[in-house]
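Researcher: We're reviewing a set of sequences before deciding which ones to prioritize for further study. For each one, I'd like a predicted 3D structure that I can look through quickly. This is Putative ABC transporter ATP-binding protein. If possible, include the structure in token form so it fits the rest of the review sheet.
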Amino acid sequence: MIKKILSITSKRAKALIAAASLSSVAAGLLWAYIIYLFVDTLIQIFNGGSPDALNRLWIQGIILLLVKTIMVITSDLTRHWAGFEVMQTVRIALIRKLKQFSLGFYSRERLGEISTVVHKDVDNLESVLGHLLAPLISDVFIALALGIWLFSKNVVLGLCMFSTIPLAVVVLLLGLRKSLLIRKQTGDDLANMVSLFVEYTKGIPLMKAFSENTAFEQKLNGSIRVFGASSALISKMIAKYTGQFSFFFELARACMVIVGGVMLYQGSITLELFLLFVIFSAEFYKPFEKIELYFLDYLKVKDSYNRVYGILEAPVVPLSKETKEAKTFDIVYENVGFSYESNEFAMKNVSFTLPQGSLTALVGTSGSGKTTVTNLLLRFWDADSGSIKIGGVNILDMDYDRLLSDISIVMQNVHLTADTILENIRFGKQNTTKEQVIEAAKKAQIHDFIAGLPEGYDTKIGENGVGLSGGQKQRLSIARAFLRNAPIVVLDEITSNVDPVNETKIQRAISELAKNKTVLVIAHHLRTIRTADQILVFNKGELAEQGKHAELLEQQGLYAHLWEIQQRAGGWKIVIYI
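Model: Here's the predicted structure for Putative ABC transporter ATP-binding protein, in token form for your review sheet.
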């Protein structure tokens, strides 16, 4: 785990970790040397030496303590700098990776779980370098150095000091193995609780509207109780094994003191040697006494590490090694087959052509495959069979970023960031001037509205366009598409949920946007696509009908049936009897 984390760190971070470890080791050894000087000086005075030695000890001790303090501060600073640099590196890697996933990944992973990984789990990784690695290296080195030194002084007392360490290690490993299993469940319970909480906060307006519906709140409360229970279980498990671990070390220390006392009484060892063992055995055991903290840190970090690298090593949209570029922009679906992972839906041998510069409408009942057609074009998923080509080039052979740069997307659900209107429009194409943004806004029929705001294009809007109407959001999205000026436009009919005034402006803007472009529109209101160059009618994942509006009406098929239903619905009225 540590090796893999270090593999993505910079040379500077590795140098900082090395400096932190060396500083920590130096501080530990200096402290041991200060204690040795203190014991040695006291014994010399006790044996008739000059009391002046005590004065020299004070001077030496103060100097050495100052040096030790500098080493400790250096170690703390450098290891935390290294930890923060690793956090930055991992977060940037995660952000880049998240952009490379297909839409299928986001249908499996909930936003709350991803948020937990990017924030909490990456913070936990900092613990490896900021709180675990350098102190652990220092403690292991100092324990080995002191153990070897004391063992060389007296083998019998050294054996007493080491006697129960094998048993303690066995207990620790057993506890670690069992705790890892429970800790993973605790981490999963936490991610589930966070995800439900995110969904809960987003759905509060809906829940207020249906105040009697408490099912989701009960579900969230249940997840909180489950997380609390698993957290209590892991704490109980850790307390059990760390308690047993500490007992074996206390037993070894007691054994060493008793045997040492007997040997001192018999004259086998000197008082100086006995005191050295009593005092330095405490320093020897000190790293082992910290094992509970290391144990907890390791459990926390191991679980977070698995989730972070679960994303970093997850498969992404496969890219061709030899990328090709489309020169023309006709689109051909040839025998395309596709099913979602749940196998709830299948697209079966679908073939059609979108001529360059034409407008093609996708029609069908809910779940018929309209959105799947556009998702496959955008490579949110990849087809299981067949091919999709733009200008004769298979989209699998195109550079993914280049493919997306050739397509403007205007969907019903507009994503807006908590930033200025200028930057939200510029989201469609970076490195553009304000004048270009204004021109795009004019074409999208939204400039007059923006100009009327107190701060104009520098007006900040809330996350997801809080404070804007649905029609205004749609026109901002169209402005992005104008700015991008891609040769292919994908539209999810965006006039289905707007008022008549906004609908008129949006229709004008779309008509301008579609000029000389290959347009694919998902149609909900059939009256808006009567003039389409071709209409593709889908039913249960199959292309059921194809043609122009008048031709499809003459066929008296599914399209004619849908048209008749919408015509009837258009005359529907609410009647209130008083």
